[in-house]
Amino acid sequence: MSAMARLRGRRRAAAKEAAREPEPFAIEEEVSHLTRIGSEPCPRTRTRKRGVSAFDMLASRESGRAGPGGGGFCSADRAYAAGKHLPAEGPWCVEDMDSEAYVSQFSSDGSLLVAGFRGSRIRIYDVDKGWKVHKNISCRSMRWTVSDIALSPDQRYLAYSSLSPIVHIVNVQSAGRESDANVNEIHEGLEFCDDDEYSFGIFSVKFSKDGRDVVVGNNDSSIYVYDLGANKVSVRIRAHAADVNTVTFADESGNVLYSGSDDNLCKVWDRRCLVREKPSGVLSGHLDGITCIDSRGDGRYLISNCKDQTIKLWDIRKMSATTKGRPPRLYDWDYRWMAFPTNARYYKHPNDQSLATYRGHSVLRTLIRCYFSPMHSTGQRYIYTGSSDDTVYIYDVVTGAVVKKLSWHRSIIRDCTWHPYRPTLVSSSWDGYVARWEASGDKEDPSMLSFDEQRTSPYHQTYGLSFAM
Q: Is 6 helix (H, G, I), strand (E, B) or coil?
């Protein structure tokens, strides 16, 4: 039998396999238990088997039964109460821009929101002052769009990247509201490539936890580490066999990195023992390129979003030393302009190491991002993600169910961010809107978005002279 005939046979078998109904959602008991501990009432509060109401919790507290010491709510109680009030009302407008919104991020204390747009514009909003613009940044040396943003741990500096080998850093706490690159403020450029004949684009940028390094993933299939003190690239890892779309840190130590690539793999790297560019481990299970990775922050669990239309949950203790061979590509498509093949939707990787798989959202045209919900307000009970079907999806980690869909936008939601303490979620869409969703809010507020303001592109709206200025 020829190689072509064998390939056709494998594709027919895969199509038959994929045509069946999806397997019931399953998750390993350990991570399910840990999630419940952090997001469900303490035993002292949970006096009945039925769901616990806010009244039950308050009554337990007043009677001295709530909390580990009997005097108040424990963190799980607070997360349980707050997790019952998801940010699903609205949306209200934070920004109405004449270009697509690509990225957004709350600061670690929730006082600032940063949003980046196609072209050369980043805006920083003061959350505590009515979402007013804190700093309006005109970027330098942009190629196509702001691809990623990162705030330093002390929240003094913002790093931004585009499809070029340069990351720029700007002081976000300086006095001026306007920051025009190298005109009225210095935007320091970190050169990640010193070869004028060769260039690459950066997809992901992060500060190390001590603020001394900047780490990037790029379409050079590599991870670069830039030492800010020495003002040079200190480490280059040829990390993957294709574009590195995402990098992030495993925990507060900053020693362990996770990366995801178009080679379908998530990899784990320990900065203390990088030998011959070999990862500490590899996680297999996705069938297409990884678009985003988010860490649970405990150095053990992470989630990844993928072009195979799934989010997967991983435990790095199950990682392999090497890959067991890349599975054959059983469908031909290009996620930038084609719909995902129906017959491939439920195909399973033969060596899937993931703990759970979440389905419902769609990942098309761009590197859509996903995250764990905040620890303080939800106990990380949820996973949330943007989607190419114009919706924010919120999944229950333990059950895999879609608990909320936030629908108003009329274009791709590439990024979204959940306030670390408040029941507020911000969505960033290619329709040009940055919108906020709340657990409750003033529906008479003029910033609340109406259906007649919807559009599929920011260019479909005619702006007045005041906006153009």
A: helix
Q: What is the CA radius of gyration of the chain?
A: 23
Q: What is the pLDDT of residue 251?
A: 93
Could you give the strand order of the β-sheet that contains 290-295, starting from the edge strand earlier in sequence?
Answer: 290-295, 301-306, 310-315, 356-359
DSSP character for 51? P
DSSP 276: T
Region 352-367: mean pLDDT is 97
pLDDT in tens, 206-243: 999 899 999 999 999 999 999 999 999 999 999 999 99
- Longest distance between any two alpha carbons in the chain, whole Å: 77
Task: Let me know: does 129 contact 112? Beta carbons within 8 Å.
Answer: no
Positive or negative, the Cα torsion across 271, 247, 144, 168? negative
Provide the b/e sequence for 224-237 (b: ≥16 CB within 10 Å): bbbebeeeebebeb
| pTM for the whole structure | 0.90
Cα–Cα distances (Å) from 300 to 251, 275, 323, in that order, read: 9, 22, 20
> What is the torsional sign of CA 458, 452, 360, 50?
positive
Order of strands across the sheet that contains 223-227? 202-207, 213-218, 223-227, 232-237
Looking up tokens 């439920």 gives 346
Residue 159 to residue 168: CA distance in whole angstroms = 6
The span from the CA of 391 to the CA of 113, in Å, is 20
Kind and range of the H or E run holding 96: strand 89-96
Give the integer Cα–Cα distance in Å for 169 and 197.
24
What digits encode the pLDDT tens for the residues 11-52?
A: 565 555 544 567 789 999 999 999 999 998 876 555 555 566
Q: Using pLDDT thresholds of 50, 70 and 90, give the confidence band for residue 461.
A: low
**DSSP 8-state code for residue 191:** E
Contact status, residue 292 vs residue 367, Cβ threshold 8 Å: yes
- The answer to whether 207 touches 150, Cβ cutoff 8 Å, is yes
Superfamily name with CATH number, domain 90-468: YVTN repeat-like/Quinoprotein amine dehydrogenase (2.130.10.10)
Closest C-alpha to 190, from 209, 170, 218: 170
pLDDT of residue 323: 77
Whole-number pLDDT of residue 41 = 81
Place of tokens 């997001």: 39
Which residue bears the tokens 């761009």?
366
What are the domain boundaries of the chain?
90-468
**C-beta of residue 293 within 8 angstroms of C-beta of residue 304:** yes
